[in-house]
Specification:
Number of strands: 16
Shape: elongated
Distance between the termini: 30 Å
CATH architecture of the largest domain: 2-Layer Sandwich
Radius of gyration: 26 Å
Number of domains: 3
Order of helices and strands: HEEEHEHEEEHHHHEEHEHEHEHEEEEHH
Strand order of the largest sheet: 1-2-3-4-5-6-7
Strand content: 15-25%
Largest sheet: 7 strands, mixed
CATH class of the largest domain: Alpha Beta
């Protein structure tokens, strides 16, 4: 997904970033700053005085700041003998919040090229957080949740404790083996997935779902606002009839309407649906729908890509709806009330251990 960076260029950039960071600290005198590339003392060694207190920095530089690479750096830094003046530090182009937390938990400092930094030694405590992300990181995250990749994620989250062989997962998701391998590598780097003797297994489904919810974009497609005078039992019966038969196509409840069956919380008078083109004519006939610019009570999306139908569930005979994962994602982007319904659904249906 992202091009492999040049280690030599990253190490030089790390040296420059560290020098700039130290020079911008008030009341600081740099005594030593040089690359060393030694297993015993890391890749960069720096000594400086801050308010006349000595700090010795031992830095490990990584071309990637993903959690798996940061953990490897921390393991390497753990071999360094330290005293009360010593601080170990991980430096990378970008360190996610998860990676930065790993460093703090391990008692290590960190610095990335975006400006995130942390040092704590004796009376010296420096912490700086920035909101920006490099474009490459944004592209990498977004590509994880594109429609084709999402087919893989839905399969993994549907059975989060199941080990998957790559070929098996590719077949189940309807994608290539190469695409599964690419997505698998990204997930492993972020420590959301691990390779076991039995296959690929999710290790942090909650972390994966949180990231997906943050980056989620509603499926692209044609949206229609329709109106029906049916309600209650008559509406349920008409919907069930619209989903039956060999020519019914694909038609499922989504958003609030799906949540009503999976984890009832926020009642909404409107009906929310995903449908393919084949289902639309039967839907309009069975539910007696008419088009309207305002006041619609049946909101239909005909998605360009049909992945949302892949893991549909049937909470009761004749009623199909989006999976708990897809329902959660849709609700998270349906306003404040929708987020409340999403939180309730997650507590009821998506509590992984």
């Amino acid at each position: 997904m992202m091009k492999t960076p040049d280690p030599l260029k990253i190490e030089q950039a790390a040296l420059e970033a560290l020098e700039a960071f130290l020079r911008n600290l008030p009341r600081t005198k740099i005594d030593r700053l040089q690359p060393v590339q030694s297993p015993e003392i890391g890749d960069i060694r720096a000594d400086f005085h801050l308010d006349q207190e000595l700090v010795r920095l031992y830095c490990e530089v990584k071309t990637s700041g993903q959690p798996r690479h940061v953990r490897a750096a921390l393991d390497q830094l753990a071999r360094i003998k330290r005293d009360r003046h010593s601080v170990v530090m991980v430096i990378a182009p970008y360190l996610s919040e998860q990676s930065r937390a790993l460093c703090r938990e391990d008692g290590a400092g960190y610095l990335d090229f975006e400006g995130n930094a942390f040092i704590s030694a004796g009376s010296v405590h420096i912490e700086r957080e920035v909101a920006s992300q490099p474009k490459a990181e944004k592209r990498s995250l977004r590509s994880l949740f594109k429609p084709k990749s999402a087919r893989i994620l839905r399969r993994l989250l549907r059975e989060p404790h199941r080990p998957w062989r790559v070929i098996e997962l590719a077949k189940a998701a309807g994608v290539s083996v190469g695409h599964v391998s690419t997505i698998g590598s990204e997930l492993k780097d972020r420590e959301w997935l691990e390779q076991t003797d039995d296959g690929l297994v999710l290790t942090d489904p909650n972390g994966l779902l949180d990231a997906w919810a943050t980056e989620y974009e509603r499926p692209a497609g044609r949206e229609q606002s329709l109106y029906t005078h049916l309600h209650g039992t008559a509406l349920e019966r008409a919907f069930a009839e619209a989903t039956t038969g060999s020519s019914a196509g694909k038609l499922i409840l989504r958003s609030y309407s799906a949540a009503d069956h999976l984890a009832p919380f926020a009642r909404n008078a409107n009906r929310y649906l995903y449908a393919d083109e084949q289902a639309m004519s039967q839907l309009i006939s069975q539910m007696r729908l008419s088009t309207t610019e305002k006041g619609g009570n049946v909101m239909v999306i005909v998605p360009d890509e049909d992945g949302v139908f892949d893991d549909a569930v049937e909470p009761m005979p004749g009623i199909a709806c989006t999976s708990p994962v897809q329902t959660y994602l849709d609700l998270q982007h349906s306003g404040e009330r929708g987020r409340e319904a999403a939180d309730h659904l997650r507590q009821e249906c998506l509590t992984w251990r």
